């Protein structure tokens, strides 16, 4: 099994795509006016408008109501990446976690939690297969 993507349903797809493009420095591909996707080497972040819910049978999801999932991006340098994130959405400034990742936690415009992280300890680097001076070339 391969995790292919995480999809966010939103009432304002233009706003959310622009936010993630600014935060990651990467561009989304638009497939319709109601669906866009940011591909990485391992998975994708898809964003769909609430209008796409009809294709799944109706009222099966609610935009801007997540309170349990954190969307995570491994980045080369979390401190550098933090400069792209508006201060008013930051939940926690870059902090080194007990499991060896340096993490920046913030909220997107719909209130979803997002974590940019960089493995900094030897154990964390090993867990993610990151060699010393080996950038991830993502976000």
Account of the 3D structure:
This protein has one domain (5-128): 2,3-Dihydroxybiphenyl 1,2-Dioxygenase, domain 1, CATH 3.10.180.10. It is 17% helix and 34% strand. It has helices at residues 13-24, 78-81, 122-128, and strands at 5-10, 29-32, 35-39, 44-49, 70-74, 90-96, 101-107, 113-119. The strands form 2 sheets. The protein has a 4-stranded mixed sheet with strand order 1-4-3-2, with helices on one face. It has a 4-stranded mixed sheet with strand order 5-8-7-6. A hairpin with a 5-residue loop joins β7 (101-107) and β8 (113-119). The longest helix is centred in the N-terminal third of the chain and has 12 residues, at 13-24. The chain starts with a strand and ends in an 11-residue tail after the last helix. The mean pLDDT is 94.
Major sheet description:
4 strands, mixed
Structural class: alpha/beta
CATH topology name: 2,3-Dihydroxybiphenyl 1,2-Dioxygenase, domain 1
Strand content: 25-35%
- First-last Cα distance: 25 Å
Summed over residues and divided by their number, the pLDDT gives a mean of: 94
CATH H-level name... which superfamily? 2,3-Dihydroxybiphenyl 1,2-Dioxygenase, domain 1
CATH architecture level-2 label: Roll
Name of the CATH first level: Alpha Beta
How many alpha or pi helices?
3
Radius of gyration: 16 Å
SSE sequence, one letter per element: EHEEEEHEEEH
Percent range of helical residues: 10-25%
- Number of E-type strands: 8
**Which residues form runs of ≥5 with pLDDT under 50?**
none
Number of domains: 1
The coarse overall form would be globular
Strand order of the largest sheet: 1-4-3-2
